[in-house]
Amino acid sequence: MYVYDEIDQRLVDERVAQYRDQTRRFLAGKISEDDFRPLRLQNGLYIQRHAPMLRVAIPYGLLSSRQVRALADIARTWDRGYGHFSTRQNIQFNWPRLEDVPEILAKLATVQMHAIQTSGNCIRNTTTDHFAGIAPDEIVDPLVWCEIIRQWSAFHPEFAYLPRKFKIAVSGSEQDRAAVQVHDIGLQARQDAAGHVGFRVLAGGGLGRTPIIGVAVREFLPWQHLLTYLDAILRVYNRHGRRDNKYKARIKILVKELTPEAFRRQVEEEWAHLKDGPATLFTEEVRRIERRFTRPRYLKLGALAPGYAMALASDKAFANWVRRNVHAHRIAGYAAVTLSLKKTGVPPGDATAEQMDAVADLADRYSFGELRVSHEQNLILADVRQGDLHALWQDAKALGLATPNIGLITNIIACPGGDFCSLANAKSIPVAEAIQRRFDDLDYQHDIGELDLNISGCMNSCGHHHIGHIGILGVDKQGAEFYQISIGGAQGNGASLGKVIGPSVSQAEVPDVIEKLIETYLARRDSEEERFIDVVRRIGIGPFKEHVYGNYHQTQKNSQQQLAAA
Amino acid sequence: MGTIIRHRKIVSNSWRRLKPAADGSAPPVPGSGDIIVPLALWLAQRDKLLLRPGRLGVWLGGDDEPALIAEDLKNFGVVAVSFTRFTDGRGYSLGRLLRERYGWRGELRAIGDVLRDQLFYLAGCGFDTFELRADQDPQAALSAFGDFSEAYQSSAERPLPLFRRRFLASPDGMEWS
After folding, report:
1. What is this structure's pTM?
2. Residue of B101, B117, B143, B154 to mutate for A, most A C-beta atoms under 10 A
3. CA of A544: how far to CAs of A55, A245, A291, A547, in Å?
């Protein structure tokens, strides 16, 4: 964990006091609704369908057990006993009262947490890989760089009123696990030929209404220049991004309208003035930040814990869980574990206060008191001894957190959708549940193999449907909730955007359509090794479309004929 | 003319701001008094304006290019930046450019939709004078300058970012706070 110093803490405390006063003035009628809106948004507070929604930042996804217990307390005291982990390493509470929010923020500040800039047209919470710091293939520890960016972006005086929201993601390795290509700025660590460390800088990626893969603004930026370069990009965007149309205000539109070449030129021109200026980083500062992170005290363990191999061989359910939910660690004898928040029947990403407390206990018992939140809306214990895996599995099972579905079809990413969100065209949660029920059979899921299924309730794409192998988007069709299905999207290094397979379908039809897609895949795959996404890439969307709509149109025709005959 | 906040004190405003007419045409220039003219007027009537008695200021809109006055700054008693809506943040960048790139050291004034709750960031971007929106209480607004006692980034008051000041105070890398 990064441990605040006196100034970090003071700034967060001062923010609470500032917002407390703003809320007081708003409630006293001294600030209008319009003037208050950006203030509350930049403190994480939305007005939602049922009540305000408070989005709390989990910087780069890292949480201590103490912080998780505080979140559980907040859920119990000011909410209805649960929270929702979003796809951007935030947690959202759906039922707080506007007048209670200053108190909630004060409570968060006592555990070094905040809701600063989690909404509004400003630089949002910087996200990274949920295996940051423990993955075997890292060039830099992205947690350190995310914290450097957190400090740079928090209360940045120049960039609080951008044309639109602005999201930055950092990947510490060449292998991208932070979706850097679909962020306003994506930073990917790399080394140049001489072994110097720096970043590949991408800009203008994003999902939403106009999904687009970011363009490389710079192939290699030495780390010392990170902040001045970010200042340059943000300044070009702040000055020239469109403000006349909310839907054209993201940086991706500016990059597109200027052309990537012209955008790059403007950034470089701006940077020429800022380069080597006071915001240039130096080794001592990076080391200072590094040292403020507490690190697990790993034991020297053998590569294979005694008993572990036997448990794997003798317990098929455990082996299944290990295969899906346990991940490699750079330290011998340790592993990372995903606790699935995707149990069938539970809205994806939701956790109750009791589960949060229990997870905090698991973190204390098995993983140095820390856990992570993934953009796939699961929780991760990052530093578990191999010899403890079996015991952890049993404990997690008892809590309903051991569904062995990571990477499988039921590990659905979904936004809160029309049940909660006032922007949504359609519901997401019941659709996710219907699909989970259809594919609940674990053997079937494992047979289907790796598959990312993502659901967004509207074009804002909070459920990242564009980069799901199967993506489902809620649309409004003459006042009715319909769903547009796309296939072929992917996250990571080979990121791609899904293609829509045809006309949207009703909620009841969604599981059938998904089943048809899976049938097509199973029939056409070369072997079990060939994943759904590989088959889509090899044969195109045609055969899938045909299987879905061929029958679909036939069914429609049949039922119309039956109706006509009746 | 009303009051303004200058250097965190409430003072009366001696400057008159000229605005283009509704049809966009240049406003008439009064024969005397201190005036702040729109950039377009300055560019069009530069020589005439320089001959006029009374002090001269210029104001920029969010989409104006401050480089256009970089060489002219010595002629101005005030440079102002207009915020059509407080959520339009372009003026923050203009403020920093005027201060940091073009070296403007005189009065930098925020005009238009200027509210109490943005004063801290505006000050950080180099603004030292504020013509608040009519409904704002200048006396109550003064406390906004104290919203935060520190800032991570460089600002007009503290040209070095926190990490650099921290390092200078303790170069051996020991914690400073």
Report:
1. 0.90
2. B117
3. 38, 37, 52, 5
